[in-house]
Design brief:
By secondary structure, the protein is of the alpha/beta class. It contains 22 helices and 31 strands. Helix 5 (160-170) packs across helix 6 (186-202), helix 13 (385-395) packs across helix 14 (404-414) and helix 18 (667-680) crosses helix 21.
């Protein structure tokens, strides 16, 4: 089939061989790059004309003159394969650009080409992508040498509950949690979790009962999570910042009969029906009831093969999907983490990830399972690198997770400052180049999908590079393979889809066997009949030294400020608004280098930008609401009828709520507008435009606070910034007695900004 296709294409090309090269370039190439050939970079040449023999012309003897690639100084193209036909066979020569390829790489490529040709001859009826081209040594290295991760832990066959209870018995008076300067010992935490666990058992919680939890980060939340597992159930974390519709979907999808929450949740609109009655339990109002419950450890009914938690991630179908994680997978994470990062009962760690982020569990369980202390960070502190550093120093923090979006700011403020930190772990999104000079701790880049229990690979960053740090090697008891579209191993240095196998794999997706069978496939490289592979959709390649380099997404899934997002879910929600005929959502990079969401829409007659944004805010978390919008008459399509995303026009920022432009009138307003324009990368900003609806987020808030301090000599608390969301409001606040006495009024109000 391939040979037939090449023959047809070549003959069709001969029919149009008179078309000038310049005309083809003009019609095909949009942006001309003078550093390379405009139409192709790799050429394959077959020299199959008969060889010329020596001949005699009267008294003149003619003989063919040989040529050598050594005569060439410059490569015409990136790579040129030349096959010359001789009487005794074919000779292959490869000319390549030494600025792009090493001799070792080209030698490897030549060997693969030779093996592939032999495979074609042996199996001409097989698909090209399924034919082997690797040597036995390469196959052994890819399957075994790079996946030599097997290790047994002394804690195997246990659960995190058992490990925690052992620590509560060994170190009852040791500090387990610190939140808002209140210390909770292991004995106290165990007792409170036990009382709640017995209460939950009476409410019907048993093995694998799914119990959603919607609380702010704090001591009560951790007590609730621990109590659910003690009762044998599996917790389902729900970020309190999620809109009611998303919360209701999770409750219905889990079939939950109860929801553990707190008093502040009372004003939420939870839809219940005759088929499903949800008992909303305010844990912070149970103090008296729980005193009558037993404080002893409940009988353990959870086993390593039972669910520990279910966490929801964005789904391409328009609905979030629940990932089911078993205790043995969580225990592997704990065992690897404590081994790799030298965690002991003297360690002191932090918990500051969002409740709905799987990294939050990673911050908690490894440390509570070995007797360490955990500092739960308040939102207002974790957004301020200087305050965060002060907290680390005063509490003697040794280990911390800092999300990718925040790590650059933290590294900068902690440079050349002795903090006592040993490890700072980051992850959740692709990490860009970062300067680690002057740090007294090890910064580690961690990679992993929720489907593999938070972390799959890790890479300690030891040197500065201009490129993004690698994602490293697989964690213990985890196997990684790079496969092509046919499921075959790709060679070293070649991009392939990262597929993961091992103990840490999730059971699958809740109530979605179809998607589970599609994403969790049989591992044909493992002798165990039950071994599975998870297809991540991420593209990577192996580099010398056995480390993985992340290259991007294979599908349409993206990450915005650490949150994994399916663009299809946003598109489906936009369609459901009834305001548009068709929509496409892309992730773009704005003028500030920040990844943002952009929505392209074909509007209906009653469309307004304000209505659409308000609808999206009611149905999606704020980080999934696009910042940019562009109205189109039609969506460009490719020749085969698919959306041509490359042909979509550039987007420009619009006021998200459709407010009319109002120019600055006072000097304060003018300075603030200029400040916002620089921060947001938007040329025209009015005094009534909303900072967050124009694309502002928590990182920009910190920059704004610093800029205001420098320009106006005024320090505005972060929580005040979250309330003063327009230039008009902020200018009035600053001009009114220079903000005297007003910050305190705002300081006690909770922030509604959703952050990672």
């Amino acid at each position: 089939e391939l040979l037939s296709h090449v023959r047809t294409t070549t003959l069709e090309a001969y029919d149009h061989q008179e078309v000038p090269f310049e005309k083809v370039v003009e019609l095909v190439v949009k942006d001309r790059d003078m550093s390379r050939s405009p139409l192709f970079q790799v050429m394959f040449v077959l020299q199959n004309t008969p060889e010329v023999e020596a001949m005699q012309l009267h008294d003149l003897q003619l003989s063919p003159a040989g040529s050598s690639l050594n005569e060439h100084v410059n490569a015409k193209f990136d790579i040129t394969f030349t096959v010359t036909e001789h009487k005794d066979g074919h000779a292959v020569s490869i000319e390549y650009c030494t600025d792009l390829y090493s001799g070792k790489t080209i030698g490897q490529m030549a060997g693969h080409f030779k093996n592939l040709l032999q495979s074609v001859v042996n199996n001409p009826q097989k698909s090209i992508g399924t034919l082997p081209m690797l040597t036995e040594a390469e196959t052994r290295q890819l399957l075994h040498d790079l996946n030599d991760t097997g290790q047994k832990f002394s804690t195997q066959n246990k659960t995190v509950v058992q490990l925690f209870e052992e620590q509560a018995q060994l170190h009852p008076q040791a500090t387990a949690l610190i939140f808002e300067d209140i210390l909770t010992t292991y004995a106290q935490l165990n007792e409170q979790a036990n009382r709640l666990a017995h209460y939950l058992v009476q409410k019907g919680v048993t093995a694998e009962t799914l119990v959603p939890v919607c609380m702010k980060r704090g001591t009560t939340l951790i007590i609730a999570l621990l109590a659910i597992m003690k009762a044998g159930g599996a917790y389902v974390p729900i970020d309190p910042g999620y809109p009611d519709e998303r919360v209701n979907y999770m409750l219905h999808d889990t079939g939950a009969s109860m929801l553990l929450t707190e008093q502040s949740f009372n004003n939420r609109h939870i839809n219940t029906n005759n088929e499903q009655q949800v008992d909303i339990i305010n844990v912070d109002a149970l103090a008296e009831k729980l005193q009558s419950q037993s404080s002893v450890n409940p009988v353990q009914i959870a086993t390593e093969n039972q669910l520990a938690y279910v966490i929801y991630t964005s789904g391409s179908t328009g609905k979030p999907k629940g990932v089911m994680i078993e205790h043995k997978a969580l225990m592997n994470l704990i065992g690897w983490h404590n081994n790799a990062y030298e965690v002991t009962h003297t360690s002191r760690a932090t918990a500051m990830a969002s409740v709905g982020f799987d990294a939050f569990g990673w911050e908690i369980w490894p440390y509570l399972s070995c007797g360490a202390s955990l500092l739960v960070i308040d939102d207002s502190i974790r957004l301020n690198p200087q305050q965060l550093l002060n907290e680390y120093t005063s509490h003697g923090i040794t280990h911390s997770f800092v999300a990718t979006a925040l790590v650059n700011g933290f590294v900068e403020i902690s440079r050349d400052n002795f903090t006592g930190l040993q490890y700072v772990l980051t992850g959740g999104d692709a990490l860009g180049s970062i300067d680690i000079s002057g740090l007294d701790y090890t910064l580690v880049n961690n990679y992993g999908p929720t489907e593999n229990t938070v972390v799959a690979t890790y890479y300690p960053i030891t040197v500065n590079t201009d490129s993004a740090p690698l994602i490293g090697k697989p964690v213990l008891n985890t196997l990684v393979y790079l496969l092509n579209d046919e499921g075959e191993l790709v060679p070293h240095g070649v991009a392939g889809e990262l597929c993961i196998s091992g103990v840490s794999l999730a059971r699958g997706y809740l109530n979605n066997p179809g998607l589970t069978s599609e994403k969790f496939i049989k591992n044909v490289y493992n002798k165990n009949e039950n071994a599975r592979l998870y297809k991540t959709g991420d593209l990577c390649r192996w580099l010398p030294g056995g480390n993985l380099e992340y290259l991007g997404r294979k599908d349409e899934q993206v990450k915005i400020r650490g949150y994994r997002i399916e663009l299809g879910e946003i598109e489906n929600t936009i369609q459901q608004s009834g305001l548009v005929q068709q929509s496409v959502v892309l992730a773009i990079v704005d003028q500030q280098g920040t990844k943002q969401l952009a929505g392209y829409i074909i509007p209906r007659q009653d469309y307004s930008n304000q209505k659409l944004v308000e609808y999206l805010k009611e149905h999606l978390p704020i980080y999934m609401v696009p910042r940019f919008y562009r109205e189109l008459e039609h969506i460009p399509l490719t020749a085969n009828g698919k959306t041509d995303k490359k042909a979509l026009p550039a987007v420009e920022a619009q006021r998200a709520l459709g407010t009319e432009y109002a120019a600055a009138t006072t000097l304060t307003e003018q300075k603030l507008v200029a400040m916002w324009q620089q921060l947001l990368g938007i040329e025209r900003i009015g005094i009534n435009d909303n900072f967050f609806e124009l694309g502002g987020h928590s990182l920009m808030v910190m920059k704004m606070v610093a800029a205001i301090k420098k320009e106006f000599a005024i320090v505005i608390p972060l929580k005040v910034i979250f309330k003063l969301q327009t230039v008009f409001e902020m200018a009035n606040f600053m001009e009114w007695e220079n903000g005297s006495g007003q910050a305190e009024a705002f300081d006690n109000e909770p922030s509604e900004l959703i952050i990672i």
